[in-house]
Amino acid sequence: MARPSLREKLASSAVNTLHEHGFKGCSIQDITEAAGVPKGSFFNHFENKEDLAIDALRRYFESARADLLFQEGVAPLERLKNHFSYLSDLLVSFGFERGCMLGRFAAEMAQDYPRMREELRSVFETWSNGVASVLRDAQAAGEIDPRHDPVQLARFLVNAWEGAVIRLKIDRDRGPIDDFFQTTFKVLLK
Amino acid sequence: MARPSLREKLASSAVNTLHEHGFKGCSIQDITEAAGVPKGSFFNHFENKEDLAIDALRRYFESARADLLFQEGVAPLERLKNHFSYLSDLLVSFGFERGCMLGRFAAEMAQDYPRMREELRSVFETWSNGVASVLRDAQAAGEIDPRHDPVQLARFLVNAWEGAVIRLKIDRDRGPIDDFFQTTFKVLLK
User: Fold this and answer.
1) Which of A76, A104, B76, B167 fits B138 for a cystine, CB–CB 3.0-4.6 Å?
2) How far does the CA of residue B2 sit from the closest CA of chain A (Å)?
3) How far apart, in whole angstroms, are the C-alpha atoms of residue A83 and residue A128?
4) B160 to chain A nearest CA, in Å?
């Protein structure tokens, strides 16, 4: 097996460090130490911490199994449930300690880091569009009311999920996840 | 008019500074400077920055017009709308630059500040209970389906609001607020 490049080692480890501590909760030194690379090598690969965080956000989103939204042979609402179940299993596996990187970076960085803000805007839009596409399929399949605006409903759901994850960091139990699933699938999408 | 005490001057100004910059985005010195009080006076009044932030959170929540949820002579869903409209007018008045202090502190502090986490838990619970009480009234008045669990629905809505506010800091337009109002009042609470 080829050795991962230094850049790859740094970037993939940073996803973890930034997810655990947030952007303001760790320094470049914390990140290089956790990755086991020399601190001096950082600026050979990234312009600054924001640049690395943008790379980490992309990797994080790529691992969020948005593909489950498009899985063939699965009914639309089932696909939506599978996607959010995957995300909630992740949250549980971290003992509710970590939230969602999107929400965390949004809270920490949207104000002062325009490049990150633009990246967040783009990632949220891609995610919302995926959910909207499932909702459209659900309407076509007669699973939900065809009068709903799928784009608006999708954005609402993605935001509601982010809010539930915020609450999770406070309550530290499945409550906010259960509230999300129950309300989404038993009330809203009925 | 009596002069506000130094403590009061510091505490009321801190709500603003902490709301604008977040807990990690401003120092004790930034806070005392903005309040126009000597930095050295800080520790006469507060144990540490967390202590002051907890005080600020309480003041912030007291100003959130939760009383609109209980206004006499107003139909239940109208009260709910009035409360969230008050909050959204505030967000708009700050040009979408500031989010909600609850969500911000949750993202920044829930992990490492157990006293703040407990305070956030309590404030979110009080707020959710207020919303649940309105939803119960709405059920009694025949405005919404009596089979919904008002407590669960209330927690979901409060979290969905927090998520919308997070998204607002990225999109910087009314979109996430409109998604919240449309979905909540035209789809969910129908």
Assistant:
1) B76
2) 37
3) 13
4) 4
Separation CA A179–CA B162 (nearest Å): 14
* Local structure of residue B155 (DSSP, 8 states): H
Buried b (16+ CB within 10 A) or exposed e, B98-136: bbbbbbbbbbbbbbebeebbebbbebbeebbbbbbbbbb
How far is A57 from chain B, CA to nearest CA, in Å? 14
Return the residue in A111, A121, A147, A177 with the most chain B beta carbons within 10 A, the one to mutate for interface testing: A111
Contacts of B189 in chain A (CB under 8 A): none
Residue A54 predicted with pLDDT over 90: yes
**Counting Cβ atoms within 10 Å, is residue B147 exposed (0-12), middle (13-18) or buried (19+)?**
exposed
| Backbone torsions φ then ψ of B136, nearest 5 degrees | -65, -45
- Between chains, do A179 and B159 touch, taking CB under 8 Å as contact? yes
- Report how far residue B147's alpha carbon sits from residue B149's, in angstroms, rounded to the nearest whole number: 7
Buried b (16+ CB within 10 A) or exposed e, A16-46: bbbbbbbbbbbeeebbbebbebeeeebeebb
Please report the beta strands in B11-66, taking only residues with DSSP state E, as ranges in sequence order.
Answer: none
How does pLDDT run across A151-172, given as a tens digit for each residue?
Answer: 999 999 999 999 999 999 999 9
pTM more than 0.90: yes
Q: How many residues does chain A have?
A: 190
Mean pLDDT of A130-142: 98
Contact predicate B173/A174, CB 8 Å: no
Q: Which of A57, A155, A186 to mutate to test the interface with B (most CBs of B within 10 A)?
A: A155
Share of chain B above pLDDT 90, in %: 92
